[in-house]
Amino acid sequence: MSTIDLIEAAADHLSGHVRRTPLLTSPFLDQIAGRRVLVKPECLQHTGSFKFRGAWSAISALDDAARKRGVIAYSSGNHAQGVAHAATLHGTRSVIVMPSDAPRLKIENTRALGAEVVLYDRASESREDIGEALAAERGLTLIRPYDEPQVIAGQGTVGLELAQQARDLGVETADVLVCCGGGGLTAGVALALDRHASGLRARPCEPEGFDDVKRSLAAGCIQANAATAGNICDAILTPQPGEITFPILNRLCGPGLAVSEAEALQAMAQAFLRLKIVLEPGGAVSLAAALFRKDEIAGDAVIVVASGGNVDPQVFAKALEFLT
Amino acid sequence: MSTIDLIEAAADHLSGHVRRTPLLTSPFLDQIAGRRVLVKPECLQHTGSFKFRGAWSAISALDDAARKRGVIAYSSGNHAQGVAHAATLHGTRSVIVMPSDAPRLKIENTRALGAEVVLYDRASESREDIGEALAAERGLTLIRPYDEPQVIAGQGTVGLELAQQARDLGVETADVLVCCGGGGLTAGVALALDRHASGLRARPCEPEGFDDVKRSLAAGCIQANAATAGNICDAILTPQPGEITFPILNRLCGPGLAVSEAEALQAMAQAFLRLKIVLEPGGAVSLAAALFRKDEIAGDAVIVVASGGNVDPQVFAKALEFLT
Lengths: 324, 324
Hints:
The structure is a homodimer.
Chain A lengths: L2 H12 L12 H7 L2 E6 L9 H10 L3 H6 L1 E4 L3 H12 L4 E6 L4 H9 L3 E5 L6 H12 L2 E2 L6 H20 L5 E6 L4 H13 L3 E8 L4 H8 L25 H8 L4 E3 L1 H15 L5 H12 L8 E6 L6 H8 L4
Pfam families (chains A, B): PALP (PF00291)
Cofactor (chains A, B): Mg(2+); Ca(2+); pyridoxal 5'-phosphate; Mn(2+)
GO molecular function (chains A, B): ATP binding; L-serine ammonia-lyase activity; magnesium ion binding; pyridoxal phosphate binding; serine racemase activity; threonine racemase activity
């Protein structure tokens, strides 16, 4: 099956298990952005981010024996929670390999959602090596965070919903800004839009200094980041675009957009004030691009996928300081 | 038309203009509450609270000449924003009479949404007197915040949505906890549930010390509050239940519930952490009751109407301190 067919199949598997997130608007955001802003708040998804979609899709696609043995994932946090919760709901076990410097809240939540958490040092160890070794040893299936067709398919259901919701609102042409780490969400959304809403174009959004996808799209080949830590947008700091995701992004996406940490925090503050939703920094870079990169965007409307809300209260308090 | 018929008619007028808010859940909240918790986040409604529903309903029910002359309302803030925005969207003008000690954010938003704001002193002046005088002088129609059938009808659409959503989730019997000031939302919800989901029972929730509705229900006749200021739940501090709303509440609601200011703040913190939504104190008393009054609630599931999210960042930061 091609990936777009996998997305349609994933939508069937996810139906009744995933939350269909609404599209939120505010005249105040429209004013800042200089155009109509439609925000899809995936922070309201189960486990607080879109990652639950891909996790559910991947686990539900396993054969019975593999699903019974369990799954393993490595993740800075949101994929971890998505896999842990989806595994528990499927009645199977999950092992999650997490960096020891991941936000405390994400580690605690992952454990509480039923996973066994194995911590590793982001600077000196490879999560891929650890994950693959544990998978072999215990007979677990590795659920990769983005370079995995079933995961991309699950994330692509965001794009299916968006295509329908934009049509219902009469929005035929718009850039769709997507928070982008390894590119699983962006690739899935791009494929779904390409099939179902050809006037909507996905554009990856990243933190400045960690804009590997933006640079890769500009170069036409995969470019790496110099580092994968040291930015407040922890959820989307990845080494480089995926081997599976990049060709999709390269074929279907518009140019990437990059924003500063301060702009991500200001976008969180505006989401608090105007939409009454909680975003984490990595889940707010798309809204930040809509609000603060308006000259790089065309059209009367812009669609924003706000991808997650798992943020420590201290970081959120920092965002609120922009309002006082 | 009876009020329940008005609700059905309001649902038609609101269709396409009001946001159908989802039902949110979290296994973490279920654990605290000791039962399944289903939260309807009306903070995600246009203008950040359910009040937009009643405002739209009332303005759309006016005859053309009256609608053209404009409307007036008195409000501590959420009704103000709802009326201002609904009036602007209907292409007419609004005058809003607000207490001078209302949260700054609510005053500013009301102006930005297109209203003329007239401030009054909550301690020495009567908002009713001011509102009625201005209405007479300028030919404006007064939109009362709760003791007004078309407003109750609009708020009742929350109940219509809930009846359907609970049925879809297989919840047939549950208490429905509703943040309650003058009783417009609670009365509308109670009427809608009585018609469409007879196993669901509305229960008003209030701040301790300002629990006029709870005491009125216990006494079987209207009881007043000793004060209408001096509590963090500013959105729901009203002198006493309405003349129109109380008989509805008395006939249809279960006993009232009252929570402390600290409990309202803790509920805001849990809504931030587990649902990724922003609630104001007065919009969180229902969730606080679900989490911290579990012995006063029966059944395997409880439904919470979280009524608004227009909170100053300083107050929200105070709620976040419960998490650190």
